[in-house]
Amino acid sequence: MSGAASWLQKQRKSELSVLADKVGLRNFENLRKTDLELALDRHIRANSTQLAKHPDLMPYYSRIAPTLSPFKREPVAIAPAVEVTKRPRARRATRVREDMIPTDESEIDTSKSANDRSSIAFASNLRLPPSPTVVADAIDRQAENLRSSVNEVWDRAGITEYAESTRDYLSTVASIEFLALMVEAFGLRSEILPMRYAFTIPAIRALHTSDLPVKIPDLFLLLTSAFWSPFSLWLLTSLLLPLAFAYFFNLTLKAKDSHGTRTRNVQVSQFDPLTFNVIKALVTWLVYSQGVNFAGLVSYYSILTVNGAVPGGYQGIMIGAGIGALTSIYEAVLRK
């Protein structure tokens, strides 16, 4: 990745689109940002003679020009060695220190030349650090590779498609009603079908785990009235009676247009969600609050069991019905 390409990557897609229009790039409207960067880089390089003086491309061409590291220097010319003329040493042994001191300028020049050669050899073997532009390009390249890998894994996993499909399923009144019924059924299950001890998973020393008791629902209660009586009452008051009234009192069948002159069958449901929630709240209040037992068909034991098992009691059921009624009204307003 060159410095020019990294400059293109730092631009926003809107800025790249404006630049592509100015430099004469065609058919770039449907390209993604990465593809647009590559297309712009190829187009600018292919038409460098015409676009070299374009004012918007000055930062681009400034990145193409090679930059030298501030640590690098021009090679130093090595001066040729000067011939040294040796002079005979003094014969007197008492002046040995005088022989060790150079008496001619040529000897001084020779020592300087040797020092220069050793300094140049050391500098040639020393690895100088790269320039800041090279470091920035390496970081951009690694970041681009990491981003491409993450996007590829994300696309292969299909997380976006799953999230959108889940949102479509949950964005309906029926989904909200179903979730409310599941909350009520979960609370009722723990009361009328409790968990019983079945067996124990022994401890595994290698994994440092302890004994794990396993519990399962007591399925033998399915053969008794202690299960079916409360369950039938909850099913009748929370689902069957509201569905029956919502089917026969379906106000969506006669929904009129804005002028009120003719009926239409657009977005008509088999069951009116508003009627369902209103009847559910009314029946819940009559049975669990006022003690209506349908002329003795329902025992007070079942009424107390359901009222104590459902989260929040009958008030919790009425709150769920109120939320369902509000969402049904909101959906009807959006359909208008």
Quick recap of the structure?
The chain has 336 residues and is mainly alpha-helical. The protein has helices at 3-9, 13-23, 33-46, 48-51, 58-64, 96-100, 105-125, 132-157, 159-170, 173-192, 225-248, 273-289, 300-309, 313-335; strands at 195-201, 212-217.
Set down the secondary structure blueprint.
Layout: H1 3-9, H2 13-23, H3 33-46, H4 48-51, H5 58-64, H6 96-100, H7 105-125, H8 132-157, H9 159-170, H10 173-192, E1 195-201, E2 212-217, H11 225-248, H12 273-289, H13 300-309, H14 313-335
Antiparallel strand pairs: 1-2
Helix pairs in contact: 1-3, 1-5, 2-3, 10-14, 11-12, 11-13, 12-14
Based on CA atoms alone, the radius of gyration comes out at 44 Å
**Structural class determined from secondary elements:** mainly alpha
> Strand tally, please?
2
- Tally of helical runs: 14
Mean pLDDT: 78
Strand order of the largest sheet: 1-2
Low-confidence runs of at least 5 consecutive residues: 67-86, 93-101, 261-266
**Portion of residues in helices?**
55-70%
The topology string of helices and strands comes to HHHHHHHHHHEEHHHH
Task: Please state roughly what percent of the residues sit in beta strands, choosing from under 5%, 5-15%, 15-25%, 25-35%, 35-45% or over 45%.
Answer: under 5%
Q: What is the makeup of the main sheet?
A: 2 strands, antiparallel
Quick one: overall form?
Answer: elongated
Distance between the termini: 54 Å
